[in-house]
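Please review the protein record below. Let me know how this chain folds according to its tokens.
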Amino acid sequence: MTKFEVNEHGFVQYPKSHAGRAINVLRAITTLKYPTSVKIAEVIGLDQSSVLRIITKLNEDSLIEIVRNDVGYSVIKWGGLYSQKIVNEYDGKLAMR
């Protein structure tokens, strides 16, 4: 199994196109006080354009609805492969540390 690094904020640094990146974005949205795209990018270790691309893809493909409001992003509908329980409990357990 491949080892992935974990950044100073506790987010596993997955390679490009890894599904873990989507979980990181969802986890950041649900745990940050002000989950703006800039703050999400900062804590998970991606650039802002990648975060926005992942949010768009999640909205299009995953039966999840993520909206932007006055304090940042929030998930208003869960579905598909992602549930709030899975995202809230996930902390990189699938990655060897």
